[in-house]
User: Fold this.
Amino acid sequence: MQSLNSGISQLSAGSGNLVVANQTMAAGFSKVMASTPTAGIQRLGSANAKVGNGLIEIQRHVPALQTGADKLANGSIALASGTDKILKETKIMSASLDQGAKKLQVIHTKAVNAAAIANPVHEVTKDISKVPNNGTGMAPFAIAIGLYVGAIALGTMYEGFLPHRKPKYALTWWASKASVVGAVGFLQTILLFYSLTQGNQLAIDHSGTFFLVLLLGSFLFLSLIFCLRLLLGGFGTWLVSIVLVLQLAASGGLYPTYLTDSFAQSLNEWLPMTYLINALRSLISTHQGITVDLVVMISLIVGFNFAMILRFQLGLHQSVIEIDSEIA
Assistant:
């Protein structure tokens, strides 16, 4: 019992102590609550919210950041490739400069070498066909013009169609006219030949060939002019002047053919004077072959005279043949 009482007394004393301790704890808890930083906690919560918003914004820009990173990677690859090319070209340039420096070391820096470098090309002019003066160079063209003008004069003064008497054959009719025209052409050639060789002292390598070319040129232009007059009448007489103008421009006697326009160049090979000028120029200065020129001139002479014989043959079949009364 005493033990029970003693326990009760201890329980009562312990309860008192518990009450005191509880009061002490309550007072301490009040102090703790009073000293708790509630404002800082609120600011911390607000800051946490801002951090969350910032993280969301960063996450939204992550794709753009990834795209920029890809472009940067591609640019880095291109930059690396370009850098490699630059390095290769730099090595090539360096090697070339080294070679150039070695070659420059071999060159002797003398005045003669400097002059050679300053003027590496020297023009050497060589005359293939040297002539003593401009008159000699222009002689083929002047001779051809003289022969053509002489043929025009004879064609104007001499009747090339009307017979002296009634003809029986076309060939004899043609021969009666051709004999007169040919004699005048031969006389013209003789006068021209001696005036050139003796009067003007024109230097010719082959005098016989030169005389033959002059004679063919005279017969060529006489045949051309009389053929145009016989076949075309008054129109043929007018056409003679047109042919003269064309030959002056496109025969290659006054200016080189390569300096004329395309029309004159295309017309050059169709003009009789072209071949006479080429033959004369070859005999006087260039000393080239004249076989083609001679063949062409002879062919034209034969062709023109054959056309005139046909015209005389047609004249035989006319009901009335006019006779040249002035000569008859």
